[in-house]
Amino acid sequence: MQTNYVALAVVVAYMAGLGLLTSIVQRSVTTATTFTSGTTGSGVPAVLVGLMLMSEFIGTSASVGTAQEAYISGISASWNIIALGAGFLFYAWFLAGKYKESGHNTISGVFAEVYGPSTKVATSLVMILALQIVAVALYAGGGAILGVLLAVDRTLATVICGVVAVLYVFVGGMRSVVYTNVIHSLMKYAGVGIALYFGLTKVGGLSELQTHLPPAMFSWTNVGVSQIFAWFIAGMGATFSTQYVIQAINTVETRQKAQVASFSAAVLLIPFGIATALIGMCSLMLYPGIKSINAFSALIADMNGPMAGIVAAGLAASLFGTISAISVSTATLLYKDFYTRFVSAADDERRSLVFVRVTTVVVGLLPIALAIYTPNVLQITFLAKAIRASLSVLVLLVFYAPWLGTKGGALFSIIGSMVATIAWFLMGNPFGIDNAYVALVVPLVVMVTSSLLAWRRTGPTMPKQELR
């Protein structure tokens, strides 16, 4: 394996162009509020927000991870991304307007309004943990690709990915994320499209792929119906409760535009999932016996310089687009729920802006160590989604059944479901039950039980006012 200098040059040029755009955007970023919300007095077009949302959910963990799973299970691996598209459809109808009208751009702020301030810190900690786990999967996938381009060990490539990924976002904040992620979205589609074309051409077309691979690889349920449902629970739950989705939705002005943004993201996600699965299947036919995590990168290694450069730039876009959103979202939670509460008032704009920018860099670098030892990108990705899915149960209750549960029940639900979900994952999903089901059931059981106990003590109470 040799360093692909042409492909590497394309990636460097692409990142340099984004760096220039970010430096222009940062001129409008003068306060911590502007940094975290992305607004400067005028809203962001809904379609651009939709592109950004799609971009944030298809990082290297989605592209490399889906190809990895498809190398093992075939076309059914695409359900993990299709589930996200379905999640955004439900989000558009039931939650986009609710979030927009709530006036909050953190999920912890929404919870605190109904369940009290004690839930605010717990929610922030759970969300920060989930986002950091996503970053681990992102760096692991990015390292696999960069290792091919540089002809270096994946460990070194992962470290390089982590360092480079956080350098440009801290300058411009959420507003730079919106505009650079639009470019990232287009580059991702171009990269995956070229990779799919190259793979299908290499194997002799879709008919040859069907001839040489087992029929089970083309079954839409080969990965298992239970796994598919688990992906839907985790994927849809993640769209309902992820911090950077809420922040992105709050960059548009109206409920209708929030719905347009959500629909746009859903439409763009579905073909991406099918394409990346087919790439993994092509890799299986061309390179049997390789490590599954290298399914996508092996295909890139076979391409000529310019073609490999475009595909690699698309995957770099997957990494940088999502990690930037994660870093800004995590910094926002730390700023709003910890810094302004325990350290300094929000009216000291200079110190606040310094805090969120430094925090953005720090939280972007922390996941690197774990990424080096991550063998299965998709499993780690969906652990993070399952953790967020537990929060989505409370999101639905807040907006549609605020009378169910108690403040104490909500707090215990947030902490208990996180611990139970992670423990179930570490035990290897006993009895074949995915951790996503645990994430769904625990908060429901806790909230119903807390309501019953409260009713026994005090009798029936009037429902709390619904958030509008």
UniProtKB/TrEMBL annotation:
The chain crosses the membrane at residues 6-25, 46-64, 70-94, 125-150, 156-174, 225-246, 266-287, 307-334, 354-374, 386-403, 410-431, 437-455. GO terms for cellular component: plasma membrane. Pfam families: SSF. Keywords: Membrane, Transmembrane, Transmembrane helix, Transport. The keyword Hydrolase does not apply. The keyword Transmembrane applies. GO terms for molecular function: transmembrane transporter activity. It is found in: Membrane. It is a multi-pass membrane protein. InterPro entries: Na/Glc_symporter_sf, Na/solute_symporter, Sodium:Solute_Symporter. Belongs to the sodium:solute symporter (SSF) (TC 2.A.21) family. This is Solute:Na+ symporter, SSS family. It comes from Bradyrhizobium erythrophlei.
